[in-house]
Design a protein that fits this description.
heterodimer; A: Rossmann fold; B: about 90 residues; SH3 type barrels; six-stranded antiparallel beta sheet
């Protein structure tokens, strides 16, 4: 007879140390998927009882109540009650309580216990409670709740064996288990009951070390707080660009080396071209994002695990509220200045669905690092290096203007979206700010690995496929040897460019630009290489390529065209990776298609206005 | 000194007890969330922090052993009476 391993659900308030307990019980081998139809993560793993029998453990989203106020809490409620689609009803539930925060956390525990399923309570973070000056009586708590209570310190692996034993006991005597003494009550009653039990369980309470509060008088100081936040962000961005340089170089030379090896070991032909220009270039274009993503997420995870992230949200909330968002959107949008992909992935910490969607949709408007090569070449070619003020050059000013253009655009779009397509009750920014904690390196590394894996697997497959399709479009049909036409012109992409050209001529674009925009769908910076190909530049290295490209551009583009091209790239969603991540994070094609449409429309209008204004001004 | 006011008007480090919440001014789900975070009638709170540059929005409250961020728009709907700072923990 085969019986599937029992399913154990881990439930508890946010900040109860639930994920740390999950990591301690299951180790690094965890499976992450989405619950069907929602963008709520399902995290599961395996652990074994003392006798080796396996069990499946699922980490439910942190919840304050079984009466859901967010999609996360809805999933928790549905799983616990056995209503969640694609999930069997758990055989037992571990409720994780923060020992130092009993009166608040008991409220949710009471709700779950009242359902009558087998429950074991993990009285977690006992060490911190003791440091806080609290002495607790777990036996009293067990008596009051009518369920087993095991004191644990997840991060030190204390109490795990006892927890597993209590769980096993509970599963074995499922039917003979004592009925919980808790009765069903709502809101006010629950809270009073929670407070009452907490008072019984707390044996003594002395004012412990309040270093967390003291730290906040600095970090949340009305003036010093924002300064510290900006200092932290400054360091973070420095690191994203400075630390990623070497690994990006390594990845690039590695993929060149692989391509070179293939080239010298394979007969020329379609297959070789496909492997080198399609497959290797495709994989390379995905992997090359990894260093920046990992560094950015390392910072984000550290800020989150330490508890500082909620303080950053608190400081920035007022500003974000003015465009209909909340402080929670700040870090994802900021991350998008490096790259929209980790930015969009970071929106998972936003609990309000409307806020989250709006943040995802405006994230591509933040000027990411991939736009810099495009901006640099056009500004270098068309904007004279005049000095317009003390230490201010015109070129730098234009670049700065493009950043501002993007930010202002994002704010306006957010305002418009929030009152139209993502309209809904504002979540009002109610947020718990947990005590500061020293991040545990193991938990941070597990988180980092999970982000990297999600990116490589989910986004990677789509990016890879799209890169290959683009390569095929540019490669076929093969140009006849004696036609005198270039391969690019003759290819499907070249023919598409012929179709697009009349559409983009009103905004000052020529056919060369239309052609460059097609491969640049893969990533914006490809536009530079594509223009170089179009102008048939055969340069020995990048520097020489840029130099001669500058000369060709100057001779073939007017200034209004160049300015329109810049304006286009402030908005144009030319990044397959962003579209792929948006599809993943919004669980369908609806929003990425909406994003594509509105950004292309804005890009078209912005480029058009820029072109005609410049022409009217006689530039 | 008036002993009765709303949450947003408390000065820093001031202790108070929530006497009434204007639930009509708060949406249903926000109200549930407030209660889930432990903010309800009869609860003792302390105002700990204000937002950037001394703007009174959002504010940070101590509720039990938790610190909760609340926007001014919600704080205005919450009536409190001042209490002496007796809660040591």
């Amino acid at each position: 007879m085969t019986q599937s391993a029992p399913l154990i659900a881990l439930a508890g308030n946010p900040n109860s140390g639930k994920s740390a307990l999950f990591n301690a019980l299951t180790g690094a081998r965890q499976k992450i998927a989405n619950y069907p139809g929602v963008t709520v993560e399902r995290k599961s793993g395996h652990f074994a009882f003392a006798d080796g029998r396996p069990a499946e453990l699922v980490d439910l989203p942190g919840s304050y109540s079984l009466d859901p106020t967010s999609p996360d809490e809805e999933v928790t409620r549905n799983v616990i009650t056995g209503l969640q689609q694609g999930e069997r009803k758990p055989d037992a539930i571990i409720i994780v309580l923060d020992a130092a925060n009993l009166d608040n956390h008991l409220r949710f525990a009471l709700e779950v216990i009242a359902l009558g399923q087998p429950v074991v309570v993990a009285l977690n973070m006992m060490d911190l409670a003791e440091r806080d000056g609290l002495t607790l009586d777990p036996a009293k708590l067990s008596e009051a709740l009518g369920v087993p209570v095991v004191p644990t310190v997840a991060v030190r692996r204390r109490g795990l064996e006892e927890l597993s034993a209590a769980l096993e006991n509970r599963l074995l005597q499922k039917d003979s288990a004592p009925r919980p003494v808790v009765s069903k009550t709502r809101d006010h009653g629950l809270r009073k009951q929670a407070k009452l039990i907490a008072n019984q369980v707390i044996i003594s309470e002395t004012a412990g070390r309040r270093w967390s509060e003291r730290a906040d008088s600095l970090f949340l100081h009305p003036f010093a707080g924002p300064l510290i936040l900006f200092a932290i962000l400054f360091v973070m961005f420095q690191a994203v660009f400075a630390w990623s340089e070497a690994p990006i170089g390594l990845i690039e030379s590695a993929s060149e080396w692989v391509a070179g090896t293939v080239e010298s070991n394979m007969a020329p032909g379609f297959l070789r071209d496909f492997i080198i220009e399609g497959a290797i270039a495709g994989v390379g274009s995905v992997v090359v994002f990894l260093p920046q993503i990992l560094i950015l997420f390392l910072f984000i995870l550290l800020l989150e695990a330490s508890g500082y992230m909620t303080r950053a949200a608190f400081i920035m909330d007022r500003m974000m509220a003015s465009v209909g968002l909340s402080g929670r959107s700040f870090i994802p949008l900021l991350s998008s200045f490096a790259c929209a992909i980790p930015g969009i992935m970071a929106t998972r910490s936003i609990s309000d669905p409307g806020d989250r969607l709006t943040t995802i949709l405006v994230a591509p408007l933040m000027t990411c690092s991939a736009r810099l090569p495009v901006y640099a070449i056009i500004i270098g070619a068309f904007i004279p290096p005049t000095v317009v003020g003390p230490g201010i050059g015109l070129q730098g000013l234009v670049l700065f203007g493009l950043y501002v253009f993007g930010i202002v655009g994002a704010m306006i779009v957010a305002l418009v979206l929030r009152s139209t397509v993502t309209k809904g009750p504002n979540s009002g920014f109610l947020m718990e700010m947990p005590k500061y904690q020293l991040p545990r390196m193991k938990d941070v590394l597990i988180g980092l690995w999970q982000r990297a894996w999600i990116f490589m697997r989910r986004a990677g497959t789509i990016i890879f496929a799209a890169t290959v399709v683009l390569w095929l479009l540019l490669t076929f049909p093969k140009v006849p040897e004696d036609s005198g036409m270039s391969q690019v012109d003759y290819s499907v992409a070249g023919r598409i460019a012929n179709v697009i050209t009349p559409a983009v001529e009103p905004i000052g674009f020529n056919r060369d630009i239309a052609l460059a925009l097609i491969p640049a769908m893969a990533a914006r910076e490809v536009a530079v290489a594509a223009l170089a190909t179009t102008y048939a530049i055969d340069a020995p290295d990048e520097e020489a390529e840029a130099k001669s490209l500058t000369e060709r551009l100057q001779s073939r583009w007017s200034l209004p065209t160049a300015l329109a091209f810049l304006a286009w790239f402030v908005f144009a969603p030319q990044c397959i990776s962003t579209i792929a991540v948006t599809k993943r994070e919004t669980n369908g094609w609806r929003w990425p298609i909406f994003m594509l449409a509105y950004l292309f429309a804005l890009a078209y209008v912005a480029a058009g206005i820029t072109y005609w204004s410049a022409v009217a001004l006689g530039l | 000194m008036p002993t009765s006011t709303t949450l947003d008007k408390l000065s820093l480090k001031q202790h108070a007890e929530i006497v009434a919440i204007d639930w009509a001014a708060i949406s249903d789900s926000e109200g549930r969330r407030l209660r889930a975070l432990g903010i309800d009638e009869g609860i003792a709170v302390e105002k700990l922090h204000k937002g950037m540059f001394g703007l009174n929005d959002p504010i940070a409250l101590k509720v039990g052993r938790m610190m909760i961020a609340v926007r001014k728009s919600h704080a205005q709907a919450i009536s409190v009476t001042l209490t002496p700072a007796t809660i040591a923990a």
